[in-house]
Amino acid sequence: MAQPLFDLENVVGQLAAVRQEWRAAQQRSNEPGGRELPSRDALSDILRGLKGVLFPMRLGPTDLRQESEDFYVGHTLGAVLHALHAQVRLELHYTARHQEAVDGAALDARALTITRDFASALPEIRRLLDSDVVAAFEGDPAARSVDEVLLCYPGILAMIYHRLAHRLYQSGVPLLARIAAEPAHAETGIDIHPGATIGPGFFIDHGTGVVIGETAVIGKRVRLYQAVTLGAKSFPIDAHGKPIKGQPRHPILEDEVVIYAGATVLGRITVGRGASIGGNVWLTHDVAPGTHITQATSRQDTKPDAAPTLAAARAALI
């Protein structure tokens, strides 16, 4: 009898032992039944369908005709919502697994409510995305059409994912929201936490390396360039030395703020309306409305178009 090419039995046994060690360390029991957690693959299919539902003639099937648009949207949306409901249900049951008494029927009813509310929010999500597309078209002289913006700009793709993920986050399914946000990070290099609140007309130009933290609040018609970070400066610690989660720790950007490439804005600070932050600036303090901050001067200048003098630039280097 020929020897098998691979020692599958041994590898399978060792993998089972490693899983048991992990479950014991995490204090998880071997519960019978199907999948416990939502599926990344399932969410990927759901998001693909939702992009087509939101923009059927641009991000839907290549052979779609306008007279069939409503039929396609209805058919696709029905399938997507059924799949999303199943994933929402998985997260709710997983989150409640350690409760002493789990009301499965109540969790199932909540899953249905969350999915219905998500569906009802899609028209408003489309309106917000339309405002983002217009902001990109008007804010970039290289853009030749809104269609080009929608099809080609990484910032718009990132915002499609974010607007959908943020709604899931608001609905109380944060794990699904994080899974839904990650494709944008992988495809564009733009990392937006689904908890971040972003107003209409948001434009990320170029985009690679942009990071926006969970508790960031961004107003209307804000523009960011590549490699901008809206991050946390520090984390509050509990009595056991562990970070306290969920605290406001990221910046607030008021309406019409512009932040140029490479700037790092940290902490729960407020950048006032109409302010601009220059490239590569490291900022950890509040900025008054209309203020312009540059790296060369490291000071606040309330004149919109003021350029640093040679003397000021030399002084900043000392």
Sketch the topology as an H/E string, one letter per element. HHHHHHHHEEEEEEEEEEEEEEEH
Describe the strand arrangement of the main beta sheet, using strand numbers. Answer: 3-6-9-12-14-15
Briefly note the CATH topology name of the largest domain: serine acetyltransferase, domain 1
What is the radius of gyration computed over CA atoms, rounded to a whole number of angstroms? Answer: 24 Å
| Average of per-residue pLDDT values | 90
Please work out how many helical segments DSSP would assign.
9
| Global structural class | alpha/beta
CATH superfamily of the largest domain: serine acetyltransferase, domain 1
Please bin the fraction of helical residues.
Answer: 40-55%
CATH architecture of the largest domain: Orthogonal Bundle
* Count of spatially separate domains: 2
Q: How large a portion of the residues is in β-strands, by DSSP E?
A: 5-15%
Low-confidence stretches: 300-318
**Molecular shape:** globular
Can you walk through the features of this model?
By secondary structure, this protein is an alpha/beta fold. It has 2 domains: 35-189, serine acetyltransferase, domain 1 (Orthogonal Bundle); 209-318, UDP N-Acetylglucosamine Acyltransferase, domain 1, CATH 2.160.10. It is built from 9 helices and 15 strands. It has helices at 8-25, 40-54, 56-59, 69-95, 104-139, 146-152, 154-170, 174-188, 310-317; strands at residues 191-192, 197-198, 203-204, 211-212, 217-218, 223-224, 229-231, 252-253, 258-259, 264-266, 270-271, 276-277, 282-283, 292-293, 300-301. The strands form 3 sheets. Strands 3-6-9-12-14-15 form a 6-stranded mixed beta sheet. It has a 5-stranded parallel beta sheet with strand order 1-4-7-10-13. It has a 4-stranded parallel beta sheet with strand order 2-5-8-11, with no helix packed on it. Strand 14 (292-293) and strand 15 (300-301) form a beta hairpin. The longest helix has 36 residues, at 104-139. The radius of gyration is 24 Å and the shape is globular. Mean pLDDT is 90; it is low at 300-318.
